[in-house]
Amino acid sequence: MCGNNMSAPLPAIVPAARKATAAVIFLHGLGDTGHGWSEALAGIKSPHVKYICPHAPVMPVSLNMNMAMPSWFDIIGLSPDSQEDEAGIKQAAENVKALIDQEVKNGIPSNRIILGGFSQGGALSLYTALTTHQKLAGVVALSCWLPLRASFPQGPISGVNKEIAVLQCHGDCDPLVPLMFGSLTVEKLKSMINPANVTFRTYSGMMHSSCIEEMMDVKQFIDKHLPPVD
């Protein structure tokens, strides 16, 4: 990777206060970096959990008149029938799977890792969890949608994550990724994985952002699915 200017800087990390026995990998939204979310997660951290907030590579984004900005994949439009960057989404998912593998090498089993993200990062975390062969502890999907939804078979998925726990959260005043996208996504998820494991929370008056109530729900989900082992 040395000398390759396409490589993104090292992730922002909130280390565990003691030996890390679990990890949360959280993917930021379009045009952002991992730093803001690492600070937000530091506010709800648990002592045995390591929080990893990678930074997306900088690339031109069609939606924003080809301006270059941190982005996990290209976004062409924001309507449900917009063309999608299939190759970019699949490549980004492979990069996230490599991050998970890295933590497994560091001694944290994949079933002690929660994948999460906001907006474009949440979309990527959902897609990755549904396509990976790594068994994960759960997914936190904030203000997002399921990319390449037509590429998934009708009905339940096979694979290691068909029982995965999902916390999906959305503001009811989101002007960028409308609540309808969240509602359609949760219905699709419930058809693919055990519907009893899918939780959908909405927040009154919240726009395309986060709030304290949502972060408390995220903390509760992480604490439930990544309990201390010692």
Q: Can you walk me through this structure?
A:
The longest helix has 20 residues, at 86-105. This protein has 230 residues and is an alpha/beta fold. The protein has 5 helices and 9 strands, in the order E-E-H-E-E-E-H-E-H-E-E-H-E-H. The protein has helices at 34-42, 86-105, 120-131, 179-192, 212-225; strands at 12-14, 22-27, 49-53, 58-61, 67-70, 113-118, 138-142, 166-171, 198-203. Residues 1-6 have low confidence and may be disordered. The strands form 2 sheets. It has a 7-stranded mixed β-sheet with strand order 1-3-2-6-7-8-9, sandwiched between helices.
SSE arrangement:
Blueprint: E1 12-14, E2 22-27, H1 34-42, E3 49-53, E4 58-61, E5 67-70, H2 86-105, E6 113-118, H3 120-131, E7 138-142, E8 166-171, H4 179-192, E9 198-203, H5 212-225
Parallel strand pairs: 2-3, 2-6, 6-7, 7-8, 8-9
Antiparallel strand pairs: 1-3, 4-5
Keywords:
Rossmann fold; disordered N terminus; alpha/beta; cytoplasm; LYPA1-2/EST-like; acetylation; 30% helix; globular; 9 strands
